[in-house]
């Protein structure tokens, strides 16, 4: 066998779908965790500066933000390891399905392991769908805030109408109802929207939302590729191609 044929044989065992899904997962998790962590920090700073004067009003929110940041650390570590494992499993199932190497055949244990990864990835994709939906909430909040600020800029000639346009953080559950001031109205709200902190926080939440979507796409790609390989391995097993462990 020549060098070219050997290279083509090795490349034939590369799980390209799993490889693409791994790259998508790494990039999506990096966006979600990195931008989400910083966005939470900036959100606490915005609430502390413009919506709450008393520490007791936002101390609960500060603890929740700190808790979510620890969760982000765990998610980053878990997905890094899980994607590596899925990529390794993709190399196994692809090589076994294509029978790239003579000694690399489908086994009963291998098929059981593949089915386990399919179920785990499917459950993880469903759970991550909830995370994807949850990550849209802060984007929705800042979108409404930005739309209100745009309306204020349009109605600058009627101050009475401007003062009635407000964003109340208490309505979104970010602060208790007795928090003071708890909301920003009129030109005060418009000045907040023009700050660097607000724009950075808004962009970070959008990036985190996009990262969650990319991660969801990666999990769906993993599910599709592992399901296909598992179906091929079952077919080969029924034909008697393979061995039992």
From TrEMBL:
Q: Which BP terms from GO are recorded?
A: axon development; central nervous system myelination
InterPro entries annotated for this entry?
Answer: Myelin_PLP (IPR001614), Myelin_PLP_CS (IPR018237)
Which terms in the Gene Ontology molecular function aspect does this entry carry? structural constituent of myelin sheath
| One annotated Gene Ontology cellular component of this protein | plasma membrane
Q: Which PROSITE patterns match?
A: MYELIN_PLP_2 (PS01004)
Localization of this protein? Membrane
Any keyword Transmembrane helix? yes
Per UniProt, the keywords (alphabetical) are: Membrane, Transmembrane, Transmembrane helix
Q: Does Transmembrane helix count among this protein's keywords?
A: yes
* SMART domains, per database record: PLP (SM00002)
Highest taxon in the source lineage: Eukaryota
Could you list the residue ranges that cross the membrane?
70-92, 113-137, 204-224
Name the membrane topology term.
Multi-pass membrane protein
Membership in a protein family? Belongs to the myelin proteolipid protein family.
The protein's matches in PANTHER family, at most eight in alphabetical order, are given as:
DMALPHA1, MYELIN PROTEOLIPID
Q: Give the protein name, as stated in the record.
A: Proteolipid protein 1a
Organism source for this protein? Neogobius melanostomus (round goby)
């Amino acid at each position: 066998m020549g060098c070219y044929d050997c290279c083509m044989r090795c490349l034939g065992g590369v799980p390209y779908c799993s490889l693409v899904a791994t790259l998508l997962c790494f990039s999506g998790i990096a966006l979600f965790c990195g931008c989400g962590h910083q966005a939470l920090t900036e959100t606490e700073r915005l609430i502390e500066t413009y919506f709450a004067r008393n520490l007791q009003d936002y101390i609960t929110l500060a603890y929740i933000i700190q808790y979510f940041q620890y969760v982000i650390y765990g998610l980053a570590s878990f997905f890094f390891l899980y994607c590596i494992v899925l990529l390794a499993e993709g190399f196994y199932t692809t090589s076994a399905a294509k029978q790239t190497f003579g000694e690399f055949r489908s086994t009963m244990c291998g098929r059981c392991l593949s089915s386990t990864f399919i179920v785990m990835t499917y459950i993880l994709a469903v759970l991550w769908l909830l995370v994807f939906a949850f990550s849209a909430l802060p984007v929705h909040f800042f979108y409404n805030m930005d739309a209100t600020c745009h309306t204020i800029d349009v109605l600058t000639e009627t101050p009475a109408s401007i003062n009635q346009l407000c964003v109340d953080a208490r309505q979104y559950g970010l602060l208790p109802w007795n928090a003071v001031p708890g909301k920003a109205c009129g030109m005060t709200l418009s000045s907040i929207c023009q700050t660097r902190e607000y724009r950075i926080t808004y962009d970070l939440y959008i990036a985190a939302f996009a990262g969650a979507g990319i991660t969801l796409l990666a999990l769906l790609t993993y599910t599709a590729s592992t399901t296909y390989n598992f179906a091929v391995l079952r077919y080969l097993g029924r034909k008697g191609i393979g061995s039992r462990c």
